[in-house]
Amino acid sequence: MLLGVLPAVLMFTVLVSYFTSVRLEDARANMAQSSQILADNLAPILEYAIVSGNNVALRQILDNALQHSDANWIRVLDVVDEEIGYTGKQDRPSDFTAPEFTVYEAEVFQEPLSLNADDGSTWFRSGWESGTSILRVGTVQVGVKAEVLELKLREIWWSSMLVGGGMLLLTVLLVNLYLGNLLRPMNKLSRRVGKLIEGNYHIEPVVRKGSSKEIVNLQDQLNQLAEHLEHLKTTRDEMLAASESERSSAEHASRVKSEFLTTMSYELNTPLKGVIGLLNHIENEPLTATQADKVNTARQSVQDLLTVISDMLDYAHLDSGTLAVDSKPFDLRQLLTNCIASYRYAAEQQELSLELICLGDWPETPIVIGDGPRVRQVLSGLLDNSLELTTNGFITVLATWVTVNAGHATLSCTVRDSSSSMGEAGNLHNPHTHSRYGGPGINLSLVQRLIELMGGHVHIELDLGQGNSFRFEIPFDLPVN
């Protein structure tokens, strides 16, 4: 309601101020005009009294004029500005030119008689005669105090304020009377919307009596909205409860799987190591060439199986969040060289060229602090994938040393091959896909997770027909000299 009344109040205030200022200007003008008119009207009346020297008549005229005017005093001066008459409502002021008085003046004139002698000479001529034969015989002064005008101005202000305030109050009452039936339901609707925002979807009764059709429609629509929101809230709660139940079941299944993998890995590890020991013992005995080859194949297969079991343990630890990286000094270039060397025979069997290229400003002995076995595990997984996908061509490993500062360095390593298929690279984020080639290897999802665990990141570039490129970066701390 206040916003609705505010424009009217502003307009009303402007109008009252304007008309009050007009009245004040009129009061000032009327005061000046009436005082000047009084002086102008007294001038011809006082002519006879001044010329004849009748002071009694002069005083009576001044007293009578003072009673019917706003002037404080009236003063009459002769032609030499000597006072010949005075009347006032208060004590005689000591200074008639004081700033507290506004003085209005009028000249008193007399037209002389024209009596000419027979010889043409002027019978009567005055030294004060003007060129127009009109004589100035004196001056009448009307003095008005400034406080008289101020009093009238205050009266005008008070009357304007009283009238304006009364009209404003009446306007507000009328607006409240006519807009109340609209504003009260609107306020109620506003509070209802606030309750809906807070989540209170209670259905409220619709007041139809004394309410406009539009307000009733809004109330009905808000009830429908509240009912719909209540239904959505119930559905959402049910979905959240089902999702929570499924999440708990999934977490339980993942935990059971991890526990199973851990248990099975440990259970399989012991007998497999026994088999390896037995095969090593058999190799020491006299064997034919065929028997020795079969024993070597069996031992290599058991070694691969142990590697698979180790990968299963890594999966279990990653899923449970217990896999931690180690931080020990190792020669990074020597690790990369040894890892490439272990895959060189497999590459030659497939008629592939396998090459390691070291770029950047490698130190003479690149000792870094990190988890060397995990770095080898990552590179082995990428080489496994390339060996599986590449049937001819090349596999190139580009290892770049990037010095960050005196205490930190970064390995940027790219494994590039000439394969024409993306293979399992498109399923990098799928934890159930893996790439294996004869020898040891791990799935690419585990590669990514191991790189991220060591604080790095992996990037894949797939170009069908041109080969695949896997690039990863791993930061390392440098030992303090």
Architecture overview:
- It is built from eight helices and eleven strands.
- The protein has helices at residues 2-52, 55-67, 146-198, 213-283, 289-320, 332-349, 372-389, 444-453, and strands spanning 73-77, 83-88, 101-110, 135-145, 328-331, 352-360, 367-370, 393-405, 408-417, 457-463, 467-477.
- The longest helix has 71 residues, at 213-283.
- Percentage of residues in DSSP E strands: 15-25%
Helix content: 55-70%
The tally of helices reads 8
**What structural class results from the helix and strand content?**
alpha+beta
Q: Estimate the mean pLDDT confidence.
A: 78
Radius of gyration: 58 Å
Strand line-up in the sheet with most strands: 6-8-9-11-10
The arrangement of helices and strands along the chain is HHEEEEHHHEHEEHEEHEE
Give the number of DSSP strands.
Answer: 11
Q: How can the largest sheet be summarized?
A: 5 strands, mixed
Gross morphology is: elongated
What is the first-to-last residue Cα distance? 80 Å
Low-confidence stretches: 120-131, 423-441
